[in-house]
Amino acid sequence: MKRDIPAPLGLFDRVPDRIFGPLASPNRRQHWKLLLLLYERFFGPDAPLPPENGHLHGVVTAEIAAFIQNHRDWQAEDDAQSITDPRILANLTLDKLCHAGWLKKDHVGVRDFIDMPPASMKFLELLQRFATLGPPMIAGKVQVIFNTLRQVKLNPGREAAGLHEAADAARELIGVLNATRFRIREMLHAIASFDDTRVIVKAVFEDLIAEIFIRDYHTLRTSDHPLRHRWEIIQIAEELRDTTTVREQLVAAYQRSLHLPFDKAEIAFENDIAQFKRFERIDEYLDRMNDIVEKATRRAFDFIHYRLRSYDRLDELLEQAKAGIAAAAGAGLVIYAGVAPGEPFSAIRLRTARPKAARGERAIIRRHKPSPRELALHALSQTMEINRRVTADEIRLFLAGPLARNSAVTSDELRIGSINDLCVFLTLCRAALVAAVHDGEDARDDPLFVLSRGYRFSMDLSEDGPLTDNEYLIVPRFTVSRTQGAAYA
């Protein structure tokens, strides 16, 4: 018999129906502060360990009465229009919070105890986190997503839950970029309504830059910001989706952890992968946000320059001057203007024209022809770079002869016939040293082992261990053998 999947729970299936009542009353701001105070003093993680049955009714009402007495802005509501006693108001407020579901009253014997239900406590924590939300850190979110995907790639079945959480973090990150863009547009409209230069300066240098921007906004485009991993995030997500065995493990894990049938688990998996694919457009989000930031800053500074260049009291000063002239004329006084005599707009008062400075001659750009010595030095530099380059193909060519005859070779059997052979030999020696010092799992992603994938290394690092002494080097003897899987097991 097929069992029906229960519908997801709604908001009021998790919290009491009347929970928003105190937060919609005339004292909503005071109720919010009071809830935070009670949470901090009695029910939160930083509060002292509560008694088994909760806190005594009298202790909680005394705290509420002290809060009401210290807040003169507490408004009289419909059920307490004529009540001014803080103790009575405290009891009425406590009953209102219990009726709304924020608190719960229990009778034990002849005494009443107050506690906060877990659902209301969690809901209050979410609201508090939302109310105190500041500018986010993009770097931390990207780094967590990248690290989680690497763990999922190493162990898909065990880390599937982390993939789902990382997808939620990716969705939230894109939402942050969109929200920041919208909030900057709101600031653009708000700047137009400012009348005071000081208010404009505060809005630009405090609100606009410090409050609503991303906290690490100025480092988003730097080379060491975790956003540089976005293409690796996309690549790993595509590998998880396109590798059949890995995909089957992840979908099966989604079925178990999310309690979904196979088809819905596949849809949930595809939706999560799509969230990581949105990193392909991260540059578009950043460019668009940069344009809006630049426009907002330019408009704010235009307002500042206008305020600094104009007189806020110009109309008032003109009215005072007009009244003064009229009063002086009525009293028969002579008014002397503070200007030089003569016609105010005569040609002699115009500034003498300044001669234009002669344009300098532009230097002719000549193409430099390298000398034979410069060409030879350039060719020598390229030859040196090529001979010192170590790639996976050069490692295979260097080991092809020795490993064709044996399943494993020691460093004594490796012959150095060129500079490139010497560089490859040193690379293999360092890989063997890293393999001997570090655990294989820790060193799996080391660039040395990515470069020499397909080979296993070992080295004896004891004080009396054997050495390889050839015509160029003296190093601890190491062994190289071929494998079928990773760089070494």
Describe, in plain words, how this protein is organized in 3D.
The protein has helices at 11-14, 28-43, 57-70, 86-100, 118-131, 138-154, 160-191, 197-211, 230-242, 244-258, 262-277, 282-309, 314-330, 372-388, 392-405, 419-437, 447-451, and strands at 55-56, 104-108, 111-115, 408-410, 455-459, 467-469, 474-476, 478-482. It folds into 3 domains: 11-131, Arc Repressor Mutant, subunit A, CATH 1.10.10; 138-304, no CATH class; 385-482, no CATH class. The protein is mainly α and 489 residues long. The longest helix is centred in the middle third of the chain and has 32 residues, at 160-191. The strands form 3 sheets. A 3-stranded antiparallel β-sheet has the order 1-3-2. A 3-stranded antiparallel β-sheet has the order 4-8-5. Strands 6-7 form a two-stranded antiparallel sheet. It starts with 10 loop residues before the first helix and ends in a 7-residue tail after the last strand. Helix content is 55%, strand content 6%.
